[in-house]
Write a structure and sequence with these properties.
Blueprint lengths: L8 E6 L3 H13 L5 E4 L16 E2 L10 H19 L4 E3 L2 E5 L5 H13 L4 E5 L3 H4 L7 E5 L3 E3 L1 H12 L2 E3 L4 E7 L3 E6 L4 E9 L5 H8 L6 E7 L2 E3 L8 E4 L11 E4 L5 E4 L3 E2 L13 H8 L2 H22 L1 H9 L10 E3 L3 E7 L10 E5 L2 E6 L8 H17 L2
């Protein structure tokens, strides 16, 4: 005789960032009546990657045609702007410049033009003299203008998704143990001893997603290696009108130090990318031995160090030296001085790294018995959060039907 299980919910989502909340929202819209519970260890939503980024609504120009990032970013940007408009969430479509300051960057800039066209994104090519039409203080050899880029209040979006989802959201609730039984469901014990039972589990734990995957019994075949991005604000925000980016290095998933005028009128400068000493290591003083051990014992971390030590040394130098950081900014904005740069909140990117040192460059979603794991969702995941949420919701509902 099989004992009847008293489930607390149909779908249990771990993680109250924008992807987890978008997933909850998508589930209840696609299948009204589905009981969804979200567990979030922080006292409110969007406390980590979602709430500590530069607030940019990305166009999708950077991403490989056909990839999830390319498909979801372009679609997600349009949906996000509509969502913000409907719910009166602060946002603006500003456009942005991608500026080449060295001759060896010109072929990469032209490649971005082609990639933008392949991804269906309108792009205007500019000569050096035309840059001043958009940004009088910015100098470069050539640039492209991407009109569909914007900025928004991603924390506001996350709060609205939480409110509109109809899910039971439990804040200040940390997962301690997971017992998954394919024929029964998933039971999660929280740090206060409470047990929450669901038919299907969705892992949207961001910086901790690989740990949650292993708690379910699944091998994610990757490890989150945290990279901290350090930001400044401009004391003279009039130096930049909008968004200004360098030409990115295709060998890395980072976009380089850029300028972002936010919805409040302030201008963010950054980020750089340095290894964090904890998954939530927002400064050099924050060290968590368990997280550091996880990074240092993963073979992929050492492969990255061997391949990219020169790049990493430069990033580290800019982290420790404000003068070096200022020099990097001056490539785009010659008028900036060290006194113009005021430290502000840093962010940590949850970067999935494979055993061979490959930096996963696309969104990564995997499934196990009664589980869906979101294992790589850094930028532009906030921009793409609505289509990502629908994709994850579709997989979760399919798993639910099989129970």
């Amino acid at each position: 005789m099989v004992r009847e299980i008293a489930y607390d919910c149909d779908v249990l989502v771990i993680g109250g960032g924008i992807v987890g909340l978008s997933t909850a929202y998508a589930i209840t819209r696609a299948a009204p009546g589905t009981r969804v519970t979200v567990l979030e260890k922080e006292p409110g939503p969007a406390r980590h990657q979602t709430g500590r980024n530069s607030g940019v609504i990305h166009s999708g120009i950077y991403y490989r045609p056909g990839s999830l990032k390319a498909r979801f970013a372009a679609r997600g940007a349009a949906e996000l702007i509509k969502f913000c408009t409907e719910h009166d969430i602060a946002h603006a479509v500003t456009g942005k410049l991608i500026v080449a300051t060295e001759r060896d960057e010109l072929p990469r800039l032209h490649a971005l033009v082609q990639r933008g066209r392949e991804n269906g994104i309108p792009v205007r090519e500019l000569g050096g003299a035309q840059i001043g039409e958009y940004e009088p203080e910015v100098q470069g050899l050539a640039a492209i203008h991407v009109a569909t880029t914007g900025v928004c209040d991603f924390v506001g979006v996350a709060r609205q998704l939480a409110d509109a989802s109809g899910a039971h959201i439990r804040y200040s609730t940390k997962v301690a143990h997971i017992d998954r039984r394919p024929h029964l469901g998933v039971a999660v014990r929280t740090d206060d001893g409470t047990v929450v039972r669901g038919r299907v589990l969705v892992n949207c734990a961001g910086l901790h997603c690989d740990e949650i995957a292993r708690l379910t019994g699944d091998d994610p075949h990757m490890r989150i290696v945290p990279f901290r991005g350090e930001y400044y604000t401009l004391a003279r925000p009039d130096l930049a009108r909008g968004l200004v980016y360098p030409v990115p290095d295709p060998a890395f998933p980072f976009l380089g130090v850029h300028l972002t005028r936010g919805i409040d009128g302030s201008v963010h400068v950054g980020p750089n990318a340095v290894p964090a000493l904890a998954r939530e290591g927002y400064d050099w003083r924050t060290v968590r031995p368990r997280d550091l051990y996880s990074t240092l014992t993963w073979p992929g971390s050492w492969h990255i160090a061997r391949r990219h030590w020169r790049y990493g040394t430069g990033e580290l130098h800019r982290s420790l030296s404000k003068t070096a950081f200022t020099h990097a900014v001056r490539r785009l904005l010659p008028a900036v001085t060290p006194d113009d740069l005021i430290p502000t909140l840093a962010g940590v990117r949850a970067q999935a790294v494979l055993r061979d040192g490959t930096l996963v460059d696309d969104f990564l979603i995997k499934e196990g018995p009664r589980t869906v794991h979101v294992l790589n969702a850094p930028s532009p995941a906030a921009t793409a959060s609505l289509p990502i949420g629908r994709e994850v919701a579709q997989r979760a509902l399919k798993a639910l039907k099989g129970t």
